[in-house]
Specification:
The protein is of the alpha+beta class. It has 18 helices and 25 strands. A hairpin with a 4-residue loop joins strand 7 and strand 8. It binds iron/sulfur cluster.
Amino acid sequence: MDVRLSDWVAAREKCGLFGVYAPERTVAKLTFYGLFALQHRGQESAGIAVATSDTVTAIRRMGLVTQGFNEEDIQVLKGKAAIGHTRYSTTGSSVLKNAQPFVFDSDPKRPFAIAHNGNLVNTPELSDELKAAGVELKSTSDTWVFGKLLELELRHHDMVTALQRLLPRVKGAYCFVILTTEAVYAVRDPYGIRPLSLGVLESSSLDGAERYVCASESCAFGLVGATFLREVPPGHIVRLSEEGTEDFRIPAEGESKFCMFELFYFLRPDSEVMGQTAYSVRVRMGRQLARESPADADLVIPIPDSGTPAAIGFAQESGLPLEHGLIKNRYVYRTFIEPEQELREKGVRLKFSPMPEVIGGKRIVVIDDSIVRGSTSNQLVRMLRDAGAREVHLRISSPPIRHPCFYGFDFGTYEELIAAGADLAEIEREVGADSLRYLSLEGIVKATGHAREEFCLACFTGNYPIPIPGQLSLSKFMLERTADNGQGAPVATGEEEAG
Ligand code: SF4
């Protein structure tokens, strides 16, 4: 099988990971609940792998964790350690064969399972390595390619050494959880773009040995009876085993560049990163937004749920009352992660209902965390006007998203971004608001309490911390960039795919 650039780019995904080493516990059940708490990170498929002292097995199912797994599965999945994965993907790859964890057992003495969150940007080169080693390419998934390369390294090395040899050749944003018959490994790339945390199980065993868990977000710990310990440091491999936890370095260059999008949108508000909860940062973003772009209005209305903390901050700072003018149907998936545009658009009306008694005749300032494609904002503004709002002022608690994400978020082309190549007045017209203002780049960084250098801000600035292969940005994404070295607005060439 030849891997085309377009194949593996289409498989970019953003997911939730969980891992646990606890021989005395029902590890599959802990993993089930860990994934349940991480459901917001992916709703298309879920999987759990368990390890005994000589086997690694997995069950993978489409849909929500609670749809895919039942008590019988948990009974079948017996072991001393487990990992789990929730997934969402782009169009075309919502199929069971792409559900993780993947199990690699061609060497029956050293089976392992892998679950991945992120996107590897040099998969074609890694695939070439496999081909050169005589391995038939049976999948275009970056996780599969990584797993096969790991298998090759494991022929001659232990897991930590194998990872230390392989990871410097792997480029991109990644967190892996890897399960073997002896341990769970939590791996975070040198830039630390995606989150990964460690927790300790309370009263973990009868003999008092401490047992550990890892998860994409610390919000998974409370439900499984664990407490947050620390983040996996960027560029580290942490081994969870009978010996407790051990840290190893990935011998590769990189400096911490945490994804700003995680912070203002994707993390569950109660998850802790960089020493604070996402909730507290979002409230400060809302305060900063109110200082930068006040609105002459009667009420502050959040777009629930992701806009709510920023709306609280905006209301606190502006002194305007906060009211719930939009009610969310909690049983509809996030529109942002539906695979197709058509479904996204239908999703907005399925998801929100306006409250005429709250907003009727009022000038409202509506707070949302971001505008990606713009279709949601446009429909919401219309819905609020139809419900009687006199004026709708839109305030966004992040800067305009002008560039695609190549590191695992689901906006991989300039064409789908409303702010790519558009000025504020054009976007304002397109979403139909009386006024539209974004939080500034300086403002969002200030609200985090951290330095700008600690973040990936590429979707705002076009400065990608991990170099993107030229062929990828120019061929796959059909773009000619303006002559200012990637900082300016892109121009589509109209060519469909150059693979
Ligand atoms: S480009 Fe944007 S969404 Fe992608 S990793 Fe960077 S900050 Fe996050």
